[in-house]
Amino acid sequence: MPTTLDRPPSTTSEVTVSPRARRTLSPSESAVKAEPAKQTRRSFFERYEQHLWLGGLSVLIIAIALSPMAMGYLGRQGPESKPGVPVAATGPSNVSTNVAIAASEFKFTPSTIQVPAGQKVTFTLDNRGVVEHDMTVQAVGFSVLAKPGQVATGEFTFDKPGVFDFICSIPGHKDAGMKGTLNVVDPSTAASAAQPAAHDMSSMTTAAAAPDVKPLPADLKSLPAPQVAPPINRAEPAYVKFDLETRKVVARMADGVAYEYWTFNGTVPGPMLRVREGDTVEINLGNALDSGVTHSIDLHAVTGPGGGATLTQVMPGENASFTFKALNPGVYVYHCATPMVSHHIASGMYGLIVVEPKDGLPKVDRELYLMEGDFYLQGQRGDEGLRAFDLNKMLDERPDYVLFNGSVGANAGANAFQASVGETIRIFFGVGGPNLTSSFHVIGEIFDRVYPEGALANPSLNVQTTHVPAGGATVVEFKTEVPGTYNIVDHSLGRLEKGAAAQIVVQGESNPEVFHPIKSGSAGAGGH
Ligand SMILES: [Cu+2]
Question: Does residue 164 have a cis bond before it (omega within 30 degrees)?
Fold first, then answer.
């Protein structure tokens, strides 16, 4: 059975998993169970869009506690969508030793359960979602996990009455709305024990209040720098294979701040992939056993369903592969596309794939690889520690950090890019997002050529700042004429204070014909 991290070991429970019965229904049977069968036939993205909306909605409900707008929406969704609203709205379920719970992105139905103390209870978890979910009662160490489309069962005996929270322990899922209340009641007084509404509301309030900030781990390092891939020197198409592994890495994001990144191959961005137009490309995606989460890959260079994401949803320890033909030259973003996609991207799961035109790219002296991403952390600006992902900030598009290559100073100061006067530099620049677009600019340079939106044809000449959408890329080229330190920024300059800066140190002879100091100001170096 697949396992996830962060779950207490379960010693007093039994868990079994079986394929979902409705997958093998005959036509006549499925006519009887038309509703769920129809649900399984919807496309990944139809389901994902609805789930994202519902997931976001759960948070909204918790945050604004039953505003008229939320009530209006729920009213249209029928009784199934009411969990997450106080117990009084759903009514307590009967005390039962057989409890059926449906899980989806991102909710449990029902979210309030009553079971008797002192009797063996069988929990049946029906995963109707597109990624794995579990039902975990952390206080007693009980958990049952179901893959998408599967039904899993687990048994547990609660010694005495009590009120417990149950959650999905897969990272991010609880915050997205997958939580509920389990009332263990004395069977002899079950009828009178069914009013847990007050507890339900108070536990929600408490959960939202305390930011998830842990002490800084010892020996904290920044992630290793992602390397630019070398140019293609082939006149013929080839079969090119890439092995990618999704793994989590706790690393330094800023001085005093650590974050659990989710990565492709341990870097942010993931490795730059580079092929030639007409190549057949094999992508083999493995998900590390201890990643704790399902991952996938959608490459914008792919012509095919989900850019590969529909068939690469891999559980921890699993792998999947496919081939695609690189039909269109260009610079493309790839990213994880597992719900909640924005959470995975905000954890660092993106990179660039370059499809060179058949005739290749013009030769330059130096190529750089840079990607911008926005990061959302629990706690306040300046708080030190290992800070968890903050869903509400992400939904509000209020990043704590906007970063080039995944951390503050990844390519600045001692880590700055190096170049020499007279070199032509090419920057492959992409924006992972999940939310922000970039106003890409190099202070003190003019881009001689920009390939807008990464389309490798007809470059624009002599550009100051180029706009790069989330999930988009560009290529800029310029010749260095004057020595000095050149700052690479997102010219939405508030983001400079959130970390969005890299540097190129250009060394060589001064060039007074192009730039000649006459008298300096006394206040020192400014940039802009
Ligand atoms: Cu992912």
Answer: no
Residues near 335 by Cβ (< 8 Å), separated by ≥ 6? 297, 298, 341, 344, 345, 349, 350, 351, 432, 471
70-120: pLDDT as tens digits: 333 333 333 333 333 333 333 345 678 888 898 988 889 888 888 888 888
Of 31, 99, 55, the closest CA to residue 392 belongs to: 55
pLDDT tens digits for 215-248?
Answer: 999 999 999 999 999 999 999 999 999 999 999 9
Residue 336 CA, ligand 1 centroid: distance in Å:
5
Buried b (16+ CB within 10 A) or exposed e, 371-393: bbbbbbbbbeeeeebbbbbbbbb
Q: Ligand 1 centre from 404 Cα, in Å?
A: 20
On whether the CB atoms of residues 308 and 322 are closer than 8 A, the answer is yes
User: How far is it, in rounded angstroms, from Cα 79 to Cα 91?
Assistant: 11
Give the Å distance between the CA of 246 and the centre of ligand 1. Answer: 7
CA of 284 to the centre of ligand 1 (A): 15
How many Å lie between the centroid of ligand 1 and the Cα of residue 346? 10
Residue 84 C-alpha to ligand 1 middle, in angstroms?
Answer: 26
Mean pLDDT in residue range 162-189: 86
Distance 58 CA to ligand 1 centre (A): 21
pLDDT above 70: residue 13: no
How far is the centre of ligand 1, averaged over its atoms, from the C-alpha of 120 (Å)?
Answer: 37
Asked if the 98-186 domain carries CATH number 2.60.40.420, the reply is yes
* Cα atoms in the 13 Å half-sphere on the side-chain side of 517: 8
User: Does the fold of domain 239-507 match that of domain 98-186?
Assistant: yes
Name which residue leads in pLDDT, 451 or 525: 451
- How far away, in angstroms, is 171 Cα from ligand 1 center? 11
Task: Please state the domain extents for the chain.
Answer: 98-186, 239-507
Side-chain-side CA neighbours of 197 within 13 Å: the count stands at: 9
pLDDT at 355 over 70: yes
Cα 507 to ligand 1 centre (Å)? 40
What CATH number is given for 239-507 in this structure? 2.60.40.420
Q: Give the pLDDT confidence score for residue 16 in this predicted structure.
A: 53
CA 411–ligand 1 middle distance (angstroms): 25
Tell me 414's DSSP state.
Answer: G
How far does residue 262's CA lie from ligand 1's centre (Å)? 7
Return all residues near 414 (Cβ < 8 A) that are at least 6 apart. Answer: none
Question: Which protein residues have their CB within 5 A of the ion that is ligand 1?
Answer: 295, 336, 338, 344, 349
